[in-house]
Amino acid sequence: MKYLRRFLFFIASRLFWVTVISALLIVAFYMAMNATNIHILLTDGMKARAGVILLQQDASELTKFFKRDYLESDEQLRVGMSESSPYADYDIRSFEHRITLEWMWSWPWENAARADFVEEVPAIDGQVKSARREEVVAAGGEAAVDPPAWPKARYRATLTRVDGQWKISNLQLIEYLP
User: The domain at 2-176 falls in which architecture?
Assistant: First the structure.
């Protein structure tokens, strides 16, 4: 009886530690999977948003990345798509877009996440439209021929899982960076 009890205790203790380690590995796997999905969503979503503003692309594609109610309240997107956009007088051919994820947290069992990141567009390839060239040069000088710089900024994103997919539900501008 004494040997049986020791044997059962040995088996139970090893089973307990195997269960704990397995649970930790599963939680780590899901956290890594969420982190990867969120990083890709932020990179692709913010690049698509910049493309809508800079290149006047179709804004309906943004619903893949953003919740519709956020898109309706996004002031930068609203200005970028209007005639008062700082890029309305320019023919922009391409741009370089970068996202640097600074911090992200999401528990595997929650449907919400937060992320802090820096967005920058270091290069915009384009020129002022020929019909507006004289007016723009008169107002801003010869340097105004090139498109204005995109402001480098730090954001805090709130993401929610909708039907198994992450979507950006809110973007909060933290600060503009030099």
Answer: Roll (3.10)
Per residue in 27-45, pLDDT (tens digit) is 999 999 999 999 999 999 9
The stretches of 56-91 forming alpha helices (DSSP H) are 68-73, 75-80
For residues 98 and 120, is the Cβ–Cβ distance under 8 A? yes
Closest CA to 121 of 14, 23, 49: 49
Burial 154-169 (b: 16+ CB within 10 A, else e): bbebebbbeeeebbbb
Place of tokens 């899901």: 30
Do the Cβ atoms of 49 and 167 come closer than 8 Å?
no
Return the half-sphere exposure (C-beta side, CA atoms, 13 A cut-off) of residue 83.
0
- Nearest Cα neighbor of 56 from 91, 14, 107 is 91
- Each domain of the chain, given as residue ranges in start order, spans 2-176
Give the C-alpha separation, 41 to 98, whole Å: 13
Which pLDDT tens digit goes with each residue over 54-105? 988 888 899 999 999 999 999 999 998 888 888 888 889 999 999 999 999 8
Of the candidates 58, 61, 48, the one whose C-alpha atom is nearest the C-alpha of residue 95 is 48
pTM of the predicted model as reported, rounded to 2 decimal places: 0.84
